[in-house]
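residues and backbone:
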Amino acid sequence: MAVVEYTGISSLRGPLLVVEGVKGASYDELVEIVYSGKTRVGKVIMLEEGKAVVQVFEGTADLDLPDTKVRFLGKPLEIGLSSDMLGRVFDGLGRPRDGLGEIIAKEKRDINGSPMNPVARVYPRNFIQTGISAIDGMMTLIRGQKLPIFSGDGLPHNELAVQISRQATIKEGEFLVVFAAIGLRNTDAEYILNSFEETGAMKNIVAFLNLASDPVVERIATPRAALTTAEYFAFDLGYHVLVIMSDMTNYCEALREISNYRGEIPSRKGYPGYMYSDLATIYERAGIIKGKDGSVTQLPILTMPNDDITHPIPDLTGYITEGQIVLSRDLHMRGIYPPINVLSSLSRLMKDGIGKGYTREDHPHLSGQLFASYSRVQEVRALASIIGEEELTDVDKAYLKFGEDFERRFLSQGRDENRSIEETLDLAWDILRDLPEEELTRVSKEEIEKYMKKGKSE
C-alpha cells in the first residue's frame, strides 16, 4: 500500500484531529502522526467531503497545527503475533511493556479480526474447571462461551479473575489465558501481575495492560488486540484460550468520551447509540470453529455503576452474552469470598456441558436442587425477620441451617483453594444433609442412595 503524507491539521478536539484535503483514505486506516521527531499512532474514524477525522492513541497534547505531519499508511491497525508472546506483557496496542524487548512476529493481523462464519461455528459443550465451587457447580463455564462477571466498586473481581487465571483447566488439550487489563489503576495492575509471577502462572498467560493513566483512546484497542492474539493461539496453534477482560466498564466510558468528542447524539446516560453493536463486535469473537483444534472462551468483567444491574453497560452485555456471574456486596460485607450471588447468576449453556461424559451424572439434578433450596432459604429468612426464628417450623429451621452451611462452606473458599469438580459436587451433597430427604425433590432416590447416604456411611 502506498503511504500518503499530509502536512498540517485543521483542528484538534481531545484525542481527535481533523485533516483536510484528504483523498483515497479508508475507514479504520492506520495513521502515523509525526511532530518534533516523535511518532504517534492513530486510525481514521470518519471521512467526510475530503476531511478525515483521526483518533490518536497517544493523545494530541503538544501537537502544532501547521507543523504536524500525518501519514496515511493504507492498512488497518495490526498486531504482530508469535508463540513467543506467552509469558509476556504488552500495552493496549500490542507493544512490549515488560522491558524484555521486541518479539519476532510470525505474522501481523488486523486487530478487528474477521467475522466468524455462523455455519462454521461448533456448539459449545465441554466444561472449563475454574476451581471455584459456585461457578463449577451452579453456573458452569463452557468452552467457547462468553460469560461475564458483573461486579461493583470495591468488590474482589480482580482477585477472582486472578484465581480463575491460575486455576482454570480442561480435561484435554493445551490451555492458556489471555488477560486484558483495561483502564486499571496502577495498584490493581501491580497486584494482578505480581500474583501471576509469584504463582508461576505467568508462563501460561499473555497479558495486555492499559492503565488508567494511559491514553483513553488506547482502551478501545486493548480488548481487540487481546482477542486477535487469542484467535491466533486458538485457531492457528490449537490452544484452548480463556480471555479475561477487566474492566469493560472502562472500555464503555472511553467509548462515551470519544463519542462526545465526535459530537454524536447521545443515547441512554450519555453512551453512544451504537454501544450495543460495538460490544457485540467484541463478545461475539468467542467460540469454536469446525476443523480447528482450539477455542476462545470469554470471561469479561464489568463494574456496575452504583451496583445497578439495569445500567446500560450490564444491560446490553446481558443481551449479547450467555449468562452472567453476579457478585454480591452483602455477601462481601459478611466476609464470604467469592461473594457470588447465585440466585442472580446463570450460565445459559451449562445444561449442554455437564452431566455424564462431561462432569458427573448427578451434576444437573444436584445443581437444580441447590438453586431451589437456597431460594427457599431467602423466603425463610424473610419470614424469620417478621415472626422471629423461634416461631419457625423444624423444616424452616433446617433451611436456615442449610443456608448458613451453603454460604460458609460451599460458596466461601480460600483465594488459593482449588477445588476439583468432584470435590465441589461431594461438598454439595454433604451440605444437603441439613435438609429432610423429602425436601430433596430435584434429585432422584438413586442419586441420594449413591452420593449422599454412601458419603454419610463412610
